[in-house]
Amino acid sequence: MSREVTERLQQLRAQSAAGGGAERVAAQHARGKLTARERLELLLDQSSFEERDAFVTHRCDAFGMAEHKPPGDGCVTGTGRVHGRPVAVYAQDFTVFGGSLSESNAAKICKVLDLAMKLGIPVVGLNDSGGARIQEGVVSLAGYSDLFLRNTLASGVVPQISAILGPCAGGAVYSPALTDFVFMVEGTSVMHITGPEVVEAVTKEKVSSEELGGAEVHARVSGVSHFTAGDDAECMAQIRRLLGFLPLNNAEDAPLLPNDDPPDREDPALDALVPDAVQQPYDSKDAIRSVVDQGDFLEVHKDFARNIVVGFARLGGRVVGIVANQPAVLAGVLDIDASVKGARFVRFCDAFNIPLVTFEDVPGFLPGKAQEHGGIIRHGAKLLYAYCEATVPKLTVITRKAYGGAYCVLSSKHIRGDYNVAWPSAQIAVMGAEGAARIIFRKEIQAAADPEELEQRKIAEYQQRFANPWIAAERGYVDDVIRPRETRPRLIRALGVLHTKRDLNPPKKHGCMPL
Q1: Catalytic residue check, 156
Q2: CA 295 to the chain's CA centroid
């Protein structure tokens, strides 16, 4: 290779690595944001990044664009490794044309997604963009459409992760929304369909961009975001941790990670976790951390629909997806948001061969006009559908309440639960003893000389007869009634047996989930 060619190659590489130049990089840092390449340095294992299409430029010659064609065109793409395992990546560079999507860099991203599908490796997209490149008009919109198609085709084939590290507005939001997990950064990440100016023009409502679609809004209110970080560096660390729990693709198992937490370890503290008073709350995350390997639990959607807990952990080194009602929030009741949150997580785990472990303490579905009018029937059916459809090993521990239709929904034996056990504190019934007794014995109680005394006796009678795990155990609806301290070893042994499980759904193009 001639000296001239070598120098030209070095020059192009330097221009690509420099992004939009020192001034724009400084402005990016002043906003509390890292550059695209700095983020990739933190995300990927050291020296593992292999860049692709570093010399691609845009093809737009209108509006003075012909004079400025930086190599890379505002998007860095390639492959690398996280924990030694391969991953495909793309990172939008806000210092070049505001990270706007052009025909050329859309094609780069699509190539990365196509490659990920071909190789069977996860995709991580680092989004920091002003949206479609206005100078290119419909061509840039076509680029978004191409990307949306890839996101959809890759769904359930390879894990897809999106980090929102700056603005993400208009049609650009739909690519992250089609992926499996969305990360946002406090103070710098924003996602919304229409900006504050449009909102004010149409609705006369004055709202800031942060109030409209900031990290806290999407983590707590909308549920669009699954994880929130304090800065870019923390976000990259969170993504690395999540990838450690995920398989490379839908044909592989999640990585096995042996550890020194004994599989036969028991925890006597679990015997006293559930209060004797049925209305008294407790934190289901105490049970989760007590049971899983080394107490390591990666909670997903932590701030959204907090009455249900979902996340990843390991049991005996094997990755499992945890779903748990949270008695400490709304008594662990299922409502619209909790149903959707749970359904999405269950379907992800099923798509990627991750066994499901459910800790059940649920008084039922949340009653009320707002829930009924909001479609609790339709949304609750999503969680039921997800559990029914799932063919991965499904293990359930009933810790206390398992009432009504919610008992059926949460991985019961009747919807192909594989290993279902109950603690002695379990109450498996149509409803709570108080409500049931007042309905069944209403006339007797009204006619009694001492209605209050008879009501209490009937409540105790119903509780003794039905509000316990023994009737279900007699019917085979639970496989065993176990001491709480035994939960960890029992689940690990069951997982070992169920590891070779093979279950199939009827042949079909796809089901019609109640969306």
Answers
A1: no
A2: 20
- Give the predicted TM-score (pTM) of the model: 0.94
| Among 386, 343, 348, 383, CA closest to 505 | 386
Tokens of 322: 């945890």
pLDDT in tens, the chain (515 residues): 666 656 665 665 666 666 778 888 999 999 999 999 999 999 999 999 999 998 888 877 766 676 777 888 889 999 999 999 999 999 999 998 888 888 888 999 999 999 999 999 999 999 998 887 877 778 888 889 999 999 999 999 999 999 999 999 888 899 999 999 999 999 999 999 888 888 888 999 999 999 999 999 999 999 999 999 999 999 999 999 999 999 999 999 999 999 999 999 999 999 999 998 888 999 999 999 999 999 999 999 999 999 999 999 999 999 999 999 999 999 999 999 999 999 999 999 999 999 999 999 999 999 999 999 999 999 999 999 999 999 999 999 999 999 999 999 999 999 999 999 999 999 998 887 787 878 888 888 888 888 788 888 888 888 877 778 999 999 999 999 999 999 999 999 999 999 999 999 999 999 999 99
Distance CA 347, CA 466 (A): 33
| 405 in catalytic set | yes
| CATH number at 268-432+467-498 | 3.90.226.10
Active-site residue, selected from the candidate residues 120, 156, 171, 375: 171
Domain ranges of the chain: 3-243, 268-432+467-498
Those residues with Cβ within 8 angstroms of residue 281's Cβ, 6 or more apart along the chain or in another chain: 275, 327, 328, 331
Same fold? 3-243, 268-432+467-498: yes
Q: Which of 223, 244, 374, 405 is catalytic?
A: 405
> What's the DSSP call for residue 132?
B
Domain 3-243 in this protein, CATH class: alpha beta
The span from the first CA to the last CA of the chain, in angstroms, equals: 59
Point out the catalytic residue in the list 313, 406, 437, 467: 406
**CB-facing half-sphere around the CA of 20: CA atoms within 13 A:** 20
Catalytic annotation, pick one of 170, 317, 374, 404: 170
171 annotated active-site: yes
In the residue annotation, 406 being an active-site residue is answered as yes
